[in-house]
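Let us work through a complete example step by step.
Step 1: write down the sequence.
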Amino acid sequence: MIKTHLTLAIAVIALLLGSISNAQAQTSRFYLAGYLGLNTFNDQEFTESASGNNGDFEIDNTMSFAGALGMRLSQQLRVEGELSYRNAEFSTADIVGAGTFSSGGELKSTLLFANMYYDFDVPWSIQPYIGGGLGYGWHSGEINDGSGLMVNASSDHTGIIWNAAAGIKYRPSTDLAFTAGYRYIDAVSDLEIGSYDVDFDTHEFRLGMEWDLPIR
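Step 2: predict the structure and record it as tokens.
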């Protein structure tokens, strides 16, 4: 539902600004970017080998912080190296056949992405973009069982991650741009936190700023 609303909003903005002239062209091949995001999580499936239980964890929404260095390969195509961080808390565990119980603990994730974006060449001040990335994640998890049916656990996990993104960009000057977008992030394999195997994916809604470096 949230993704549908975001798509409709982007479409309405684009239509309203269809008669406005092009945004100012960027002046440099290189730029720095900063992003502030809101991460929402689906119910994360888990299995716990010590007890044989399985079910879903509910993880609270959390903020993410990211910085990136980008390079434009052309007027439309650009690549980015991005580092981000988020710290989410476990709230409940829905155990199959047993019910829903309070669950404590947290999941800290540091993600390093190599991203590629395509900025559409449109006659509007608002410029749509799409993109995606592949990278590596460092996760530190702690699970405090509140049901008495499973065990507490904590450990670190690393693994490959990927993302798919879309959004809009507004450039008020030649060396500055503001962005608003959505992306989906998913781990290729489950996170191993002690005796738990936990799914990891998140929907991220971001606001950002790009600043062109004084390098040609």
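Step 3: interpret the result. The chain is about 5% helix and 70% strand.
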